[in-house]
Amino acid sequence: MSSSPTTPPSSGTSLMETLLGLLRIRVRRGINLAVRDVRTSDPYIVIKMGKQKLKTRVIKKDINPEWNEDLTLSVSDPDIPVKLTVYDHDTFSKDDKMGDAEFGIKAFIDALRMDLQGLPSGTIISRVQPCRKNCLSEESCIVWSEGRIIQDMCLRLKNVECGEVEIQLQWIDLPGAKGL
Predict the structure, then answer these.
(1) Measured between alpha carbons, how far is 106 from 1 in angstroms, rounded to an integer?
(2) Distance CA 43, CA 173 (A)
(3) pLDDT-based confidence at 5, cuts 50/70/90?
(4) Cα–Cα distance between 108 and 106 in angstroms, integer?
(5) Which of these, 21, 85, 101, 162, could form a disulfide with 135 (CB 3.0-4.6 Å)?
(6) From CA 146, how far away is CA 42, in angstroms rounded?
(7) Over 60: is that where the pLDDT of 8 sits?
(8) How confident is the model at residue 13 (pLDDT cuts 50, 70, 90)?
(9) Distance from C-alpha of 65 to C-alpha of 56, rounded to nearest angstrom
(10) What is the pLDDT of residues 124-155, one digit of tens each?
(11) How far is CA 7 from the centre of its chain?
(12) 66: which strand partners?
Protein backbone atom coordinates (compact mmCIF):
# COMPACT_ATOMS: atom_id res chain seq x y z
CA MET A 1 0.00 0.00 0.00
CA SER A 2 1.31 3.42 -0.96
CA SER A 3 1.46 6.21 1.58
CA SER A 4 1.68 8.98 -1.01
CA PRO A 5 -1.52 10.87 -1.83
CA THR A 6 -2.93 10.46 -5.31
CA THR A 7 -3.23 13.56 -7.42
CA PRO A 8 -6.31 13.95 -9.58
CA PRO A 9 -5.51 14.22 -13.30
CA SER A 10 -5.35 17.80 -14.52
CA SER A 11 -6.02 19.19 -17.96
CA GLY A 12 -2.84 21.34 -17.97
CA THR A 13 0.75 20.41 -17.33
CA SER A 14 2.10 20.76 -13.84
CA LEU A 15 5.01 22.99 -12.90
CA MET A 16 7.21 19.94 -12.25
CA GLU A 17 6.58 18.68 -15.81
CA THR A 18 7.93 21.90 -17.33
CA LEU A 19 10.51 22.84 -14.67
CA LEU A 20 14.14 22.28 -15.70
CA GLY A 21 15.54 23.10 -12.25
CA LEU A 22 16.53 26.04 -10.08
CA LEU A 23 18.95 28.83 -10.88
CA ARG A 24 20.68 30.15 -7.77
CA ILE A 25 22.02 33.66 -8.30
CA ARG A 26 24.52 34.73 -5.67
CA VAL A 27 24.43 38.52 -5.66
CA ARG A 28 27.95 39.26 -4.47
CA ARG A 29 28.50 43.01 -4.55
CA GLY A 30 27.98 46.34 -6.24
CA ILE A 31 30.93 48.37 -7.50
CA ASN A 32 30.94 52.17 -7.79
CA LEU A 33 27.14 52.42 -7.83
CA ALA A 34 25.51 55.75 -8.59
CA VAL A 35 24.93 58.28 -5.80
CA ARG A 36 21.19 58.95 -5.40
CA ASP A 37 21.05 60.50 -1.93
CA VAL A 38 23.20 63.43 -0.75
CA ARG A 39 26.59 61.68 -0.85
CA THR A 40 25.71 58.01 -1.02
CA SER A 41 22.89 55.53 -1.70
CA ASP A 42 20.94 52.77 0.08
CA PRO A 43 21.02 50.11 -2.66
CA TYR A 44 19.11 46.88 -3.14
CA ILE A 45 18.66 44.67 -6.19
CA VAL A 46 15.52 43.27 -7.80
CA ILE A 47 15.93 40.23 -10.07
CA LYS A 48 13.18 39.24 -12.48
CA MET A 49 12.77 36.27 -14.80
CA GLY A 50 9.42 35.98 -16.52
CA LYS A 51 6.81 36.50 -13.79
CA GLN A 52 9.22 35.77 -10.92
CA LYS A 53 10.58 38.67 -8.89
CA LEU A 54 13.08 38.51 -6.01
CA LYS A 55 15.03 41.16 -4.11
CA THR A 56 18.04 41.53 -1.86
CA ARG A 57 18.12 43.36 1.43
CA VAL A 58 18.83 47.11 1.50
CA ILE A 59 22.38 48.08 2.44
CA LYS A 60 22.45 51.54 4.00
CA LYS A 61 24.80 54.33 2.87
CA ASP A 62 27.08 52.31 0.60
CA ILE A 63 27.90 52.68 -3.11
CA ASN A 64 30.13 49.57 -2.93
CA PRO A 65 27.75 47.21 -1.08
CA GLU A 66 28.47 43.55 -0.35
CA TRP A 67 25.29 41.49 -0.31
CA ASN A 68 26.61 37.91 -0.68
CA GLU A 69 22.97 36.91 -0.89
CA ASP A 70 21.45 33.94 -2.75
CA LEU A 71 18.27 34.41 -4.80
CA THR A 72 16.75 31.32 -6.42
CA LEU A 73 14.61 31.29 -9.57
CA SER A 74 12.77 28.33 -11.08
CA VAL A 75 13.68 27.80 -14.74
CA SER A 76 11.26 26.37 -17.29
CA ASP A 77 12.53 28.19 -20.37
CA PRO A 78 16.31 28.83 -20.68
CA ASP A 79 15.69 31.41 -23.42
CA ILE A 80 14.04 33.89 -21.03
CA PRO A 81 16.62 36.51 -19.96
CA VAL A 82 17.22 37.48 -16.34
CA LYS A 83 16.74 41.18 -15.58
CA LEU A 84 18.55 42.83 -12.70
CA THR A 85 17.69 46.34 -11.48
CA VAL A 86 19.46 48.29 -8.74
CA TYR A 87 17.37 50.71 -6.66
CA ASP A 88 18.13 53.28 -3.97
CA HIS A 89 15.79 52.81 -1.02
CA ASP A 90 14.11 56.05 0.05
CA THR A 91 12.01 56.34 3.18
CA PHE A 92 9.69 59.19 2.19
CA SER A 93 9.62 59.00 -1.62
CA LYS A 94 9.59 56.49 -4.45
CA ASP A 95 12.81 54.43 -4.63
CA ASP A 96 15.25 55.75 -7.25
CA LYS A 97 16.47 53.52 -10.05
CA MET A 98 20.26 53.10 -10.09
CA GLY A 99 20.63 51.18 -13.35
CA ASP A 100 19.76 47.81 -14.78
CA ALA A 101 21.31 44.89 -16.63
CA GLU A 102 20.07 41.84 -18.47
CA PHE A 103 21.77 38.50 -19.09
CA GLY A 104 20.97 35.21 -20.73
CA ILE A 105 21.56 31.77 -19.22
CA LYS A 106 21.68 29.74 -22.46
CA ALA A 107 25.50 29.20 -22.42
CA PHE A 108 25.28 28.21 -18.73
CA ILE A 109 22.47 25.71 -19.45
CA ASP A 110 24.39 24.30 -22.44
CA ALA A 111 27.39 23.66 -20.15
CA LEU A 112 25.13 21.92 -17.62
CA ARG A 113 24.01 19.48 -20.32
CA MET A 114 27.60 18.27 -20.89
CA ASP A 115 28.97 15.19 -19.14
CA LEU A 116 31.81 16.69 -17.12
CA GLN A 117 32.37 14.08 -14.40
CA GLY A 118 36.05 13.42 -13.84
CA LEU A 119 37.28 16.85 -14.93
CA PRO A 120 39.70 18.59 -12.56
CA SER A 121 38.19 21.35 -10.46
CA GLY A 122 38.80 24.77 -11.99
CA THR A 123 38.45 23.61 -15.62
CA ILE A 124 36.96 26.34 -17.82
CA ILE A 125 34.06 24.87 -19.84
CA SER A 126 33.29 27.93 -21.94
CA ARG A 127 33.79 31.67 -22.06
CA VAL A 128 31.22 34.38 -22.76
CA GLN A 129 32.66 37.56 -24.23
CA PRO A 130 31.27 41.03 -23.51
CA CYS A 131 29.32 42.44 -26.45
CA ARG A 132 26.48 44.83 -27.25
CA LYS A 133 23.92 42.06 -26.74
CA ASN A 134 24.91 41.41 -23.12
CA CYS A 135 25.80 43.59 -20.15
CA LEU A 136 29.09 41.90 -19.30
CA SER A 137 31.88 44.29 -18.37
CA GLU A 138 34.49 41.55 -18.79
CA GLU A 139 34.81 37.97 -20.01
CA SER A 140 32.63 35.55 -18.05
CA CYS A 141 33.90 31.98 -17.59
CA ILE A 142 31.70 28.95 -17.02
CA VAL A 143 33.78 26.70 -14.76
CA TRP A 144 33.64 23.14 -13.42
CA SER A 145 34.35 23.63 -9.71
CA GLU A 146 34.21 20.91 -7.04
CA GLY A 147 31.71 18.77 -8.90
CA ARG A 148 29.40 21.55 -10.11
CA ILE A 149 29.22 24.23 -12.76
CA ILE A 150 29.39 27.89 -11.80
CA GLN A 151 29.52 31.10 -13.79
CA ASP A 152 30.88 34.37 -12.43
CA MET A 153 29.64 37.56 -14.10
CA CYS A 154 30.45 41.22 -13.71
CA LEU A 155 27.53 43.18 -15.18
CA ARG A 156 27.84 46.79 -16.30
CA LEU A 157 24.67 48.66 -15.41
CA LYS A 158 22.78 50.46 -18.20
CA ASN A 159 20.65 53.62 -18.02
CA VAL A 160 22.89 55.11 -15.34
CA GLU A 161 26.17 57.04 -15.18
CA CYS A 162 28.19 54.30 -13.45
CA GLY A 163 28.09 51.01 -11.61
CA GLU A 164 28.66 47.28 -11.89
CA VAL A 165 27.26 44.25 -10.09
CA GLU A 166 29.08 40.96 -9.50
CA ILE A 167 27.01 37.79 -9.44
CA GLN A 168 27.55 34.04 -9.63
CA LEU A 169 25.23 31.46 -11.21
CA GLN A 170 24.79 27.96 -9.78
CA TRP A 171 22.32 25.22 -10.72
CA ILE A 172 20.14 23.12 -8.43
CA ASP A 173 18.61 19.91 -9.80
CA LEU A 174 15.16 19.18 -8.43
CA PRO A 175 13.99 15.62 -7.89
CA GLY A 176 10.78 15.12 -9.86
CA ALA A 177 11.43 18.02 -12.24
CA LYS A 178 11.69 17.55 -16.01
CA GLY A 179 15.39 18.34 -15.72
CA LEU A 180 17.88 19.24 -18.41
Answers:
(1) 43
(2) 31
(3) very low
(4) 5
(5) 101
(6) 35
(7) no
(8) low
(9) 11
(10) 999 999 988 889 999 999 999 998 999 999 99
(11) 33
(12) 29
**pLDDT more than 70, % of the chain:** 92
DSSP 80: S
Listed residue (126, 121, 123, 136) closest to 167, CA to CA: 136
> Could you read off the pLDDT of 101-117 as tens digits, one per residue?
999 999 999 999 988 88
Report how far Cα 59 is from the mean position of its chain's Cα atoms. Answer: 19
CA 76 to CA 170: how far, in whole Å? 16
110/60 Cα distance (integer angstroms): 38
Phi-psi region of 32 (alpha: psi -120 to 50; beta: other; left: phi over 0): left
Q: How far is it, in rounded angstroms, from Cα 168 to Cα 111?
A: 15
- Please state, rounded to an integer, the average pLDDT across all residues of the chain: 89
Which pTM was predicted? 0.88
Residue 74: what pLDDT? 95
> Alpha carbon of 33 to those of 71, 95, 113, 167: distances in Å?
20, 15, 35, 15
